[in-house]
Amino acid sequence: MTEFELIDRLKPLLPLNDFVVAGAGDDCAILDLGAPELTLLKTDAVVEGIHFTPATEPDRVGHKALGRCLSDVAAMAGWPIAAVVTLGLPGGFDPARIEGLYRGLCRLASRYQVAVVGGETTSNPERLLVSVSVVGRVARDRVVRRSGLQPGDALFVTGELGGSFAGRHLDFEPRLTEAQWLAETVPLRAMMDLSDGLAGDLPHLLAASGGHGAALFQGALPVSRAAKTAARAGDLAKPAIVAALTDGEDFELLFGIAPGRTVALVDSWKLRFPDTRLSCIGRVTREPGIRLWDKNGVRPLNARGYEHFR
């Protein structure tokens, strides 16, 4: 059973109430608590041996643990307010390592004015686990869901893709500021963050929008320098383009807009974020399935993103 098959099995068991605007299935849950803005809830975890190694610098582990949640808040065009942290600690843990983890986590929190307001500690045999939950806020007329894509919409990604194994998955910057600017600048049809790779996450965006398909332009995919370097050196058993599609943990934004707005968006983006790429990578199609166009023609996209339990 895959991660998403398990989620689909559990979702019907989850109780809801009148405060819930959106429960499981998007980047964050959305609650309406009667305030001027909607409330966002998100939780995520990093596990030693899966998301980082025992040798990873502890401040980078803390940065990643919080950054994953902040990236999901960004995907809803929201802003984080506060976080709580749960630590699962193995026997004989090093207190200095945990302090270093908190330094990295709190450094990122301070950068975005996120309060860290408590949490839980427990024992967890054999390995370190860090779970972070974040509360955020979003304007009622600005919240962006995964659903909403329409045939013909242009698909964009921020930044570059692939090469996370070279360390980018530990040092990424959540696209909070960029997401706020996007929501203010152009009507966003749908958006999510890329955590399982473009090949793994794009199908979720399409499925949430009614099962449309997509045509991706291989030459437009923003392959990272790290992925290209690793491919040339033979460090990865796959071409750079496959790494860009499947590595995962890019934590970039994937979104769609109406096709008539693409040129104006790209021009405005270059002025506002001159050091960060924005790439139109394809379009939404009425026909289901994802197809990759290159100089030799078109073929089905058979690459898979990262999946837990597989």
Report on this structure.
The termini are close together. This protein is 31% helix and 27% strand. The chain has nine helices and 13 strands. With 310 residues, it is α+β, with helices and mostly antiparallel strands. The protein has two domains: 3-139, 60s Ribosomal Protein L30, Chain: A (2-Layer Sandwich), CATH 3.30.1330.10; 154-300, PurM-like C-terminal domain (Phosphoribosyl-aminoimidazole Synthetase, Chain A, domain 2). Strands 8-10-7-11-9-12-13 form a seven-stranded mixed β-sheet, with helices on both faces. The chain is globular. The mean pLDDT is 94. β2 (29-31) and β3 (37-47) form a beta hairpin.
Number of strands: 13
Structural class: alpha+beta
According to CATH, what is the class of the largest domain?
Answer: Alpha Beta
CATH superfamily of the largest domain: PurM-like C-terminal domain
General shape: globular
Q: Give a short account of the largest sheet.
A: 7 strands, mixed
Rg, nearest Å: 19 Å
At the fold tier of CATH, the topology name of the largest domain is Phosphoribosyl-aminoimidazole Synthetase, Chain A, domain 2
